Structures are given as structure tokens and as C-alpha cells.
Amino acid sequence: MLALLVGYLGDFELAEESAAEAFAVAARRWPAEGVPDQPAAWLVTTARNRAIDRLRRDRVLAAKLRLIEASMIASVEAEVNEAGEGEIPDERLELIFTCCHPALAVEAQVALTLRAVAGLGTEDIAHAFLVSAETMKRRLTRAKVKIRDAGIPFRVPSAGQLPERLAAVLAVVYLIFNQGYSAPGQAGRLAAEAIRLGRVLASLLPGQQETRGLLALMLLHDARRLARLSGPDGQDLVLLADQDRSLWDWRQIAEAREILELAAAGRGQYVIQAAIASLQAASPVDWPQVAALYAELADLTDSPVVRLNGAVAVAEAEGPAAALAIVDGLDLTGYLYWHSTRAELLRRLGQPDAARAAYGAALGLAGTEPERRFLRKRMTEC
Amino acid sequence: MQYALLIYAKPGIVEALSPAEREELSREYFALRDEPGILGGAGLQPVTTATTVRLADGKPLVTDGPFADTKEVFGGYYLYEADNLDQATEMAARIPVLRLGGTVEVRPVLGKAS
User: Fold this and answer.
1) Which of A16, A113, A287, A337 has the most neighbouring CB atoms within 10 Å?
2) What pTM did the predictor assign?
């Protein structure tokens, strides 16, 4: 409904305020007068009328009012009437592309998407991203004002721009997912919201392999949610190989694999990552295939961190010596997992002293207590 | 709505071009002036010709040059009528300064919002 109103009013704040008013009116009237036949259409019409009242009151926006009255009211009415059966046109896609427009800062894209598309409250969003509610409110307001004043369009980008703009949208969704995934407490809800957004995108853009790839990837990671943490405060990471597979959500894994199947023609980064995650959930794991996919992903993203992750697969497929050669060729000395991966490989190669030294270097870079606990434990196992 | 496409160039880059290249460049800038939607614009002389005016003790003080040295200098602008920001950034992407390491700032013009 918000998407529809933003589309017609061309003004985020006005749309939000009038939608809120419409809901307030509904809350007052419906219990006494009964729910109308077409509640969604009723809400849109009420919100639109409220918006027009508001604009009428605001003489500064007289020009805007004329424009809206001339062209848009007719089309809202036509569409609301046409839609019948209480159905309203789906403009969520337009809304998502507006929220994730590259002219907005990434933090603003994330916040707006959660607020406007996922419908989360400002305070919940602030909480999940560890900023004050006031800061989040300002961030959202600034973004909405920019959308209006800079003329950020409410539309799905043209075919030429779509791949690039879709990549920005998917990046925002994945960021939301990871924020929720890495913080299982309060922010945990974000992972579910990201998956919901992923489902919306996959259903509205069925031709795009990467939207399916991202959805499959999120479902696969999320399916392991209950098995990936343990320890006294439930914050210790459990390595994939050590996870209790009976805690995995196998139905969700099966669903992810079906989605991935449909995207198999895609060779984008999310499809490949999902394919890796799918293989890693199999038993036994086809490590040569995982290593090959990592190599493809590394070429695509040119990321040394991806090459490091690939080295772990190479260690399983070809042995620790081949993996160590790859790891030693990477310039990641400031990265905790470079040191801990090296340490693990050195341990397997029967070089406990070198392994302990590498774990020591990793320990020096560890930022959280669970990480330090994990590394100390590995160190004593050398 | 109207957008100002503000052109920021790296100083010295244009001066380093050959006369033929410079001529081609100015042809491109003039060609953009004829694009539909472009309402006007101007290119400026190099920043070495700039004079700065400010108030000192309430009186105008005129000095040589720009106030601070910057990595990019304002070199000119187009005024462009577009439906939305996407259209404006598409036009901005065609300005030759980008090829020469410069940037274009896209700013909506005050009071011209729909």
C-alpha cells in the first residue's frame, strides 16, 4: 500500500503520513461500522484523500496539488476501481528500487528498505544497527527528503540499467541478512526479513538468476542457524564440519536446492555462493567441485578473501600442502582468518610450532571473546 | 525538474592536451548544448584567471585566485531539464570531463521542483 501511495504521490513522507492516518481511521471505524468489502482499496482511497487534504492545506505545495489533481487522481481511482476484488497493483518492486537507489548512502538504503518495504519500526531498525533511535530517524528523514528533492524516480530501472541496479538491491538485502545472521539476538529478526525480501524479489523478477541465487544462499545459511553457535553464552562458532546436522533445517535446504536448480544457468556471485553452500550441506562433500566453484567465484569477484575460503576446499580436495601454497600467496596479513587458516594447515602438515605461532598471530587480531576462546582452544590442540 | 550538472575537472589536464584534442573536446561540449533538455550552461576559463571577493572588516576585499587549492576545480555547468534523477545522471555520464578523471555533481535547482 505504501508502495502504491509513494508511486502516486511522488513523496515518501506524505505517503507514509497519509497511510498512517488511513490506518488510524480504519482502527476507529471498522470495529463499529464493519470492515469494508475491499479493505485494501478502501485504505488506499482514504490515504489518498488524506494526502490531498494535506496538500490543500499546504499552500506552498499548490503547484504539486495541481499536478496531482490533473493527472494522478484519475489514475488512482481508475486503478483502484479496475483492480476490483480488493486487489491493488503490486508496486513493491518500484519501492525497492527507489529505496536502494545508488544516489542514497548504503546505510540509508538499508534503513529505508527495512522501514518502507519490510515495514519495520524505526526503533527496531536502530536497535539492530546499534545506533540511537534519534540517529536512525534522522537518517530516514534525510533519505526521504533526498528522494523527493533530488527527484529519485519511483520506477524499475530500464533494461540497460537493471543488472547494475539489481546488484545494488541484492547487496542491500544480503547486508540485512548478514547483520541478522551474525547477531542472533535482537538483530536476528533481520535474517528473516531479508529472506522475505528475497522471496518478494525472486517472485517479482523471475527472469533474474541472481535474485534466486541470493534467496537460495540465504535459505541455506539460515537452515544451519541452530547448529552454528554453542558454548556457555551461545556465542561460540561451530565449524561446519563439527555442526550437529540433525539441527539443520532440512526442509529449508531442500527448498533452497529447488530454487537453485531454477537458477542453474546463472553464473553470478550469489548463484555460485549458493551452489557452494548447497554442496557443503551434502554428505560426503564433493570438495573438488567446491574448490572449482570457489576458483570461479574468486575470478569473478577478484577477492583475496574468496581465494582464502577456496584454499580450505583445496585442502580437503588436494591436501594441506597445495592449500598452504595458495594461502601464502595472499596478501591478507591483517586478516584474522588468514592466520587461523594457515595455522590449521600447518597443524595438519605436522608443524605444531609454526601452527601455534600462526594461531598466536590470529589471537592478536581477534576482536571478541568467543573468537579468542575458539583460537586458544585450537592452539592447545596443536 | 531542473538539474545543474556541475563540472569539476582536474587542474592542468585540459592544458596538457594537444591543440587538436582540445578542439575536439570543445566540440563535444558544444554538441551537448544542443541536446534536448539542455537549457543552458557555460564553461569557465582556467582557475588561474580567478579572482576571489570576500568581506574584510565589512568591506569587500579582492584577491587573486581561489581561496583554497583543491584537487578538482569547478570548470563549468549545464542546466538540464529532466524527468528524474536517473535521466539527469545519464546526461551527466556523457560529459567528457569524466574521461579526463573529473567528476560531475548533479544538483536539483532550487524552486524548480515539480
Assistant:
1) A113
2) 0.77
**Which superfamily does CATH assign the domain made up of B2-108 to?**
Dimeric alpha+beta barrel (3.30.70.1060)
Provide ipTM, 2 decimals: 0.82
Residue A8 inside a domain? The answer is yes
Q: Which residue segment(s) compose the domain that A263 sits in? A: 206-283
Is A153 in the same domain as A240? no
CB contact under 8 A, A151 and B89: no
d(CA A362, CA A346): 14
**Same domain, yes or no, for A181 and A221?**
no
Which of A268, A283, A298 marks a domain boundary? A283
Q: What is the nearest CA distance from A161 to chain B, expressed in angstroms? A: 10
- Give the CA distances from residue B49 to residues A10, B14, B45, B46, in Å, rounded to whole numbers and listed in that order: 44, 15, 7, 6
Which of B5, B6, B83, B85 to mutate against chain A (most A CBs within 10 Å)? B85
Interacting residues of B93 by C-beta distance below 8 A, sequence separation 6+: B104
Which residues, 6 or more positions from A227, have their beta carbon under 8 angstroms from its beta carbon?
A: A238, A243, A244, A245, A247, A248
A54 domain-assigned: yes
Number of domains in chain A: 3
Q: At B36, which helix (H) or strand (E)?
A: none
Residue in chain A lying closest to B3 (CA): A150
CB distance B114–A67 less than 8 Å? yes
- Whether A6 and A82 map to the same domain: the answer is yes
Bridge partner residues of A174 (DSSP):
none
Closest among A181, A212, A182 to A198, alpha carbons compared: A212
pLDDT in tens, chain A (382 residues): 777 777 767 677 777 777 777 877 787 778 777 777 777 777 777 787 777 777 666 655 555 545 544 444 444 444 444 444 445 667 889 999 999 999 999 999 999 999 999 989 999 899 888 899 999 999 999 999 999 999 999 999 988 889 889 999 999 999 999 888 766 565 578 899 999 999 999 999 988 999 999 999 999 999 998 888 887 777 777 888 889 999 999 999 999 999 999 998 888 999 999 999 999 999 899 999 999 999 999 999 999 999 999 999 999 999 999 999 999 999 999 999 999 999 999 999 999 999 999 999 999 998 888 889 889 998 998 8
Nearest-CA distance B4 → chain A (Å): 11
Angle at A146 between CA A215 and CA A171, to 5 degrees: 20
Q: How far is A154 from chain B (nearest CA, A)?
A: 9
Three-state SS at B46: coil
